[in-house]
Amino acid sequence: MPDTTSPSLDAWADRLNDCGRSGQPCFFLIDFELQRPRLWTLTELAASGVRFSFPGRPDTTRSGLPRPTLEANYIPRERYDQAFALVREGLQRGDTFLVNLTFPTPVRLSDSLASVYENSQAKYRILYPDHFVCFSPETFVTIDAGGYLETRPMKGTAPDTPAGREYLLNSPKEVAEHATIVDLMRNDLSRIAREVRVTEYRYLRSIDTAAGGLLQTSTRLGGRLPSDWRSSLGHYLLALLPAGSVSGAPKPATLDLIRRAEPGPRGYYCGIGGYFDGETLDSCVLIRYLEEENGTHLFRSGGGVTARSTAEEEYAELCAKIRIPLRER
């Protein structure tokens, strides 16, 4: 969370606190830079055109939109290498231990954002008309009715093959990157919760896509919030942002490095989306993200860079993530 918050961010947090206090179900979005928070009650959501599908509230509506195809115009390797070199300098100076470096890739989309939303499959799907569609596999935080707060950071991606599995489980770079993010998230949760513990460490998860499967490693950790957590829900979430898995560690210096290395603000990419059902909270990190801007489309992707990283491997990971996880016909 920044040292100072904007009036709109304070108002957003206060409104989410009010929803928590009164048990009013709502859906919300926050961008990575914490400049454009949005919140809708479910009644307001219907009029906005915003759609979402979460594990506890699936959206199975299908309107017969065609299955989309995607053609990427990958960013030049030279441009990526420039940003990577700047990040490596920061790592070598000791400014940071891990930086999540991302880029927007121009893509040719055969149909609309709505067609991607309706035809994709993911744990979390979000459509913000004229802005973006997201098909994220990554939980940010959940809070159950008893106030147990849990996060499941994802770090490490490889093709879903025997070689990919071997790489993720044994690569010193992937092991170190994952451990750094888990430590960061443990510290973040400890700011607002007690008895924070890791309950499952570095488990593998398969993600199906139209272009083939991916493997990712995740960890589960959590702790207990005060019994009146709902009345402070907005401010608790702000204390955890931006999400550590898509920024890096330590956060302040890493965020400065991201601003200098990346071509511009991320916007809602790498922010969070969340659904409060009146009793519990579920939220996701806005990754696997396709945005619309002035009639063109950009697919945003990236990965964690550490002292063990190579530009070749990180560029390959950035490109490998540019795919739509299409559901079966």
Describe the structure in brief:
Pfam families: Chorismate_bind. Helices cover 32% and strands 32% of the residues. The chain is of the alpha+beta class.
How would you explain this protein's 3D organization?
- This is Aminodeoxychorismate synthase component I.
- GO terms for molecular function: 4-amino-4-deoxychorismate synthase activity.
- Residues 77-321 form the Chorismate-utilising enzyme C-terminal domain.
- It comes from Neolewinella marina.
- InterPro entries: ADC_synthase, Anth_synth_I-like, Chorismate_C.
- This protein is an alpha+beta fold and 329 residues long.
- It has one domain: Anthranilate synthase.
- It contains nine helices and 17 strands.
- The strands form two sheets. Strands 1, 2, 8, 9, 10, 11, 12, 14 and 15 form a nine-stranded antiparallel sheet that branches.
- A hairpin with a 2-residue loop joins strand 16 (289-293) and strand 17.
- The longest helix has 19 residues, at 172-190.
- The radius of gyration is 19 Å and the shape is globular.
- 45% of the residues are buried.
